[in-house]
Design goal:
about 230 residues, 6 strands, globular, 6-stranded parallel sheet, alpha/beta
Length: about 230
């Protein structure tokens, strides 16, 4: 059956319009996230301000191919450096734990302890299924109104965008970047993740899969007694 030229022309126009819309959405979301995090990320441990708690955003320790995940290793190194420099007193490790054999938070804690961070200074959030879940739960479950987010810079920017929307005073400590050969796919997915994040915030109003009872982190400083 022959397709009329007019129909083909309309399909091409629709595809072109859809492509333009996608391009605008990607550029717009990326700009919104980047502007929101402007001046709030640090790569020098000596320059970053003190925060009582740092939250380490999880990822898989081992890649599907069996190799170590460089993103994971570099986040652990950054978190350990931040703690040892006394720029945070506690670390909250947040990650996916949907199955018995996959536990990002425990993997992060084990590696941080191996790196010299005392286990009693590390708290686990086992329901950080997405960045949004990790950020919102940091406030709603762990009571944080300010924090340092620890991940690669592109990820920190998106997490800070979410945190500011939730009324959290967040800054980011940038873990070392992974080389382009090993990060190309992740950086590509990040552009789509930013679009999804903006949609979650302004259109879908997405909330975490789970909240739960309050879990205070460490000893909460008390205001001095007034005489």
């Amino acid at each position: 059956m022959k397709i009329k030229r007019g129909v083909i022309r309309k399909l091409i126009i629709l595809l072109l319009l859809a492509g333009v819309a996608c391009f605008i959405a990607i550029i717009g979301a990326a700009s919104m996230v980047r502007i929101s995090a402007s001046g709030r990320t640090y790569s020098d441990v000596s320059a970053i301000p003190y925060r009582r708690v740092g939250i380490v955003l999880g990822c898989s320790r081992i890649l599907p191919c069996g190799r170590n995940n460089l993103f994971f290793q570099l986040r652990v190194a950054a978190a350990a450096d931040l703690f040892k420099a006394h720029k945070v007193d506690y670390l909250l490790v947040s990650g996916d734990n949907q199955t018995k054999d996959y536990d990002e938070a425990t993997d992060l804690k084990d590696c941080l302890v191996h790196s010299g961070v005392p286990p009693e200074k590390i708290y686990c959030d086992f329901a950080g299924f997405r960045t949004l879940d990790s950020v919102v739960r940091a406030k709603e479950v762990f009571g944080l109104t300010e924090m340092t987010i620890i991940s690669q810079e592109f990820h920190n920017q998106r997490a800070i965008y979410l945190a500011r929307h939730e009324g959290i005073d967040a800054i980011g400590f940038n873990a070392e970047e992974v080389d382009s050969h090993n990060s190309f796919g992740t950086k590509l997915r990040e552009q789509l993740a930013r679009v999804k994040t903006v949609l979650d915030v302004y259109l879908l109003r997405t909330r975490p899969a789970f909240l739960g009872p309050k879990i205070p982190i460490g000893e909460i400083p008390q205001p001095p007694n007034k005489k």
